[in-house]
Write a structure and sequence with these properties.
Radius of gyration: 33 Å
CATH topology of the largest domain: Chloramphenicol Acetyltransferase
Oligomer: single chain
Strand order of the largest sheet: 10-16-15-13-11-12
Number of helices: 28
CATH architecture of the largest domain: 2-Layer Sandwich
Structural class: alpha+beta
Strand content: 15-25%
Helix content: 25-40%
Length: 762
Amino acid sequence: MGVTDNFFTLGGDSIISIQVVSRARQAGIRFTPKDLFQQQTVQRLAMVAEVGEPDGLGEQGLVSGVSALSPVQQWFFEQEIPERQRWNQSVLLKPLSPMDPQRLEQALQALISHHDGLRLSFDPQTLTASYRALEQQQPLPAPLWHKTVADLDELERLADQAQGSLGLEQGPLVRAVLFELPNAEQRLLLVVHHLVVDGVSWRILLEDLQDAYKQLLAGQAIRFSPKTVSFKRWVEHLQAYSQSAALLRQLPYWQAQGIADAAQLPCDNPQGSLQNRHAQTVYTRLDATLTRQLLQDTAAAYRTQINDLLLAALARVVCRWTGQHSTLIQLEGHGREELVEQLDLTRTLGWFTSMFPVNLTPAAGIADSIKQIKEQLRAVPDRGIGFGLLRYLGDEPTRQVLSQCAVPRITFNYLGQFDGSFDAEGGVLFVPANEAKGAEHSPLASLGNWLSLNGQVYGAELTLGWTFSAQMFSEPVIQRLADEYASELEQLIEHCCQPQHRGLTPSDFPLANLSQQQLDELPVSACAIDDVYALSPMQRGMLFHTLYEPQGSSYTNQVRLDVEGLDPQRFQAAWQATVDARDVLRSSFVWQGLEHPVQVVHPHISVPFTLLDWQGRADLVAELDARALAELEQGFDLMQAPLLRLVLIRVDARRYHLIYTNHHILMDGWSASQLMGEVLQRYSGETLALNAGRYRDYIQWLHRQDAEASERFWKEQLLTLNEPTHLARAIAHTPVAGLRALYGEQRQVLDESITQRLRSLA
């Protein structure tokens, strides 16, 4: 992996981003999942990352007291669910070497002590959760059962008992069973109630359980990584944000998603039972080659993430099945979003899942479908967490409005890649086992939806399960859907892996304010675009004047220098490295057909560098002046980057004359000095620190400013002025006969003492 490799083209996703942030923070490097999504490469991430102890760690002691419920927990208690205590998530594992029951029990107890969420109890009447004190925990049954079984049937029977052994009000919420098999192998079943665990939590839980057990094997005391923000504090944060004006502005978006026609499915028996006892699951599978291509080779074509392609394929298949132009999908996200306040949740256990409806409308063609679905997903505010906040924590009118919206009949949840959690090279203690692990839900409880798609990557292969009720759908119908989905995914993968298929969408360039059509019509190929953003006010002014006077040279700057002992090749390389490092130097400008001009940053631009040998020229000075004038008069085509040129002319054995010409729209005087300094540093072999920022950061800052407030401020400041200040009137002078009004220049040099006093004052 290189420092410029893109996170998403390497197969990264939102869940992996949380793991990356967590590992980095353990190493003393701080950045957020949002930073990783925005910067996408190690090189760019280094510009925003900080080194040192993380801020805002959670309480390192035991969390206590009463907590309100999160939106998804409130959704759980709103449903009619028989045997609520049996709504679990579980894994059955195969230890790679025999596990000692006593050490395993110690590790589990330490895990429950460390992760406060595992000590919760729930009150369905008050819709609250309470943290149990450890001394109250002692009378509870031990979290570990150690069982010897005669065969796999007995294993399944005992596993089913374990699935039903949890309790919401009195506990426990965690059950582990270590099975001893007749062939001397072991199996470890871990069962956790879904109210306190989700997909990200499982990765934390399995990592910590293994670390604790390994420490005990080595005779060490158990030490976990520091806690992050508690689930209790997170819910308090959600409650505060749910009353904000920013969140309320999302309401029209969520109302628009609830389109009834898009929610309809051609169900064989809509009145059929949706109970778990009628559940069946069929599968869509991609082999290792297709999975690798999906994860690593497809993202570059349209700057997508894996969910974009999975949902583009799903929308196309479902719309063909229903005959509708769009389909309403309930998406599930990890829910650990950065809202107003940055709270570190990377190592917090809990049910954070966000569930939200999205109306997806594919196009006729593959390329347009990918672009449209990608944009529809990017339009989801706050990655979907706002729907649950408004629906369950909003005021009464808001909750009523959203409760009456159309309900999606398809749920989609991509759980990410699990190979990293069971990497043998990483010293794992166990891997997933294939035997039956008992029923996680009561057979009388309802399925999560009419159709539920749950996908994950394990063993380098993508598997998506389609779960449905056999009382409502026939298995051949759903199997055909699953097969068509596999075929559609293969077509999308093949399309994206062909180099001629490249495309950009408006969400790639949020500072440009361009439509899809305007992006498609840019006079630059997609592969030659790194970024697109608006111009600063000063740049807009310069562009206007340059277009108004195309033959003028008012904004063409030139520097001429005599340099001795220069290595031309090394000098050229230093300039090229500097242009590679500075995005603004790789910018061109586009205005034709656009309401507002934009600047286009190119991924790589070769520096125009002309090397001439004029030794022995008779009229050298005049020829140098003529060449410099020609460079000025040539000017620049603002649509062609780079807007700078270098001419290096050898005038004798050791001396060179440099003519450096550039357009002022790229940089100001201070920046020009900075540029020359960086070139000379690189020329001398210095390694420069990564740039602290990019020009786009300034454009983004401008976009965030309150223009109306600025206008009010300056109007107040200038209110008493009704005419320009004329310098001539302010200076007493004696009229000089015959003196005409002319422009002039007066220079004044301040001595060292005054200069030092000015610096001190500043």
